[in-house]
Amino acid sequence: MDPTSSPDWRSPEAIQKWWYTPSQRDIKRDYPPSTVIALRDGLFEAHNRPANKLRGIFARHQQCKSVHLVPSVIEPVSLQMISEVGFETAYVSGGMASMTDTATNDPTTDLSDYTYDTVPNKVASLYRSQLLHYRTAMARGDTDRAEASIVPLIADGDSGAGLHTTVMKLTKLFVQSGVAGFHLDDLLSGAKRFDGHDGVGYVVVPLSEHVRRLKAAKLQLDVMGAETVLIHRTDAMSATHITSTIDPRDTPFILGATVNMPTDLCEVESGPLRAQWKIDAKLATLEEAFASACPDLVATLKTRIAGLNVSRALRVAQELYPDFFWSAESPRTAQGWYAFKGGIDCAISRSLVCAPLVDMTWACVGSYDPKGAAQIAAAVQEAYPGKWMAYNITGGFPDDGSRDDEVKALPESLASLGYVWQFLPIAGLTAVAVGVRSVGLEIKKGGLLGYLQSASRPAGRTGHPSAEWWWKDMARLTDMAADAIGEGL
Ligand SMILES: C[C@](O)(C(=O)O)[C@H](CC(=O)O)C(=O)O
Ligand SMILES: [Mg+2]
């Protein structure tokens, strides 16, 4: 039955009851059901089956203390292969989408500067390909295969593409696309530098802005009656800058100059002068700077600045010790960004604020750090026992010098820390590259026979996308439709 035709669709009591169900009861909401009702459409568009399936998969892994390790997928054929070899979920990467499918067709680096329908469109085509595989498996009477074709997709929502209205539109597109879960991060879109030039790496937004992204997404999910899994991602671990100092929760991580420099950073030329400026300015957080300037009063400072943003905290510090110098303004970049001390403490602090707003937390890492993974897990699990957690294995890793036995044991060790989902964001692209290259080389070497031996016959033996599936299973459904429509006479 269409949920929108039920009186529950517009009943505050029914929404409240839904919010008490196991999938919803741990989410903190600050808005009443009446807001949700006011924003509701008269159409039901959520694909809750994959979302609920995903919830079941995570719950099972949590119960078994295992972690679900999955690759990403970049197109429908890979997705089907992923499902056939037994993966239960798949990741749809923004970075990989930006290299393969953007509205302008220009492959680019991973900057989330593509139009915000890019990843939802990718998800939609993958999801709809699953439905085709579901139909053909059912036509063969293979109900298990049909069910296994529905692989819940977890997608990259990047930074939400804008302020709250855009986040809500993006969320709506994701829900319409058939996504089972998606993540939103705390980055400033398009601002990454990959070479660390001038000390700029990842730029984060204030925690309050990230919280607004997550709340906007959850509100939209509520509006649509969607069970979609919402994932918080923080890039705090790699953050070097922040766009604003307004949020008191960011105070411990804002860096300032402890030396009163004759120029501000943005006034000096790029290059060596700029690098030297940073060395001379001796950057430190306000508390670190105060601890070395006036160690006796640091305990008092800590109590007095709790809950204050840096501009208020600086005033307090200068009341306590009038000679104290510290400036968050002078190290600002030409773009106006503030210097920021990213790292594990910041990732933990952000994860703890966001955990109650979402189903899963993820602190994005550039390489595997067992100690860091354990610290984050311990902090999140202590505050929110049973909160689902994700871990990514990105970049060059695991070919980073780790021993093979360490790499092999990694999923198990993550599982023991409480992680339930571990994913390989660029594996989909790498797998296509390796597969196509190896078949291509066989064709070059062996001609037609090379193709038969390396591609066509193995595909025929393993099922899709074999000629049999193409010409028989799928064609049978098309022919059935033609028969049903008849000759038009
Ligand atoms: C996970 C990620 O967001 C992605 O788009 O796949 C990227 C991956 C990468 O850049 O290697 C990320 O980690 O930011
Ligand atoms: Mg991404």
Automatic annotation (TrEMBL):
Names of required cofactors: Mg(2+)
Annotated Pfam families: ICL (PF00463)
Alphabetical list of InterPro entries matching this protein: Isocitrate_lyase, Pyrv/PenolPyrv_kinase-like_dom, Pyrv_kinase-like_dom_sf
Source organism, top-level taxon: Eukaryota
Enzyme Commission designation: 4.1.3.30
Enzyme class: lyase
Binding residues for Mg(2+): 156
Cofactor binding note from Swiss-Prot or TrEMBL: Can also use Mn(2+) ion.
GO biological process entries: carboxylic acid metabolic process
Record's keyword terms, sorted: Lyase, Magnesium, Metal-binding
Catalytic activity: (2S,3R)-3-hydroxybutane-1,2,3-tricarboxylate = pyruvate + succinate
GO molecular function: isocitrate lyase activity; metal ion binding; methylisocitrate lyase activity
Similarity field: Belongs to the isocitrate lyase/PEP mutase superfamily. Isocitrate lyase family.
Name this polypeptide is given: methylisocitrate lyase
Naturally occurring in which organism (per UniProt): Saitozyma podzolica
Gene transcribed to yield this protein: ICL1_2
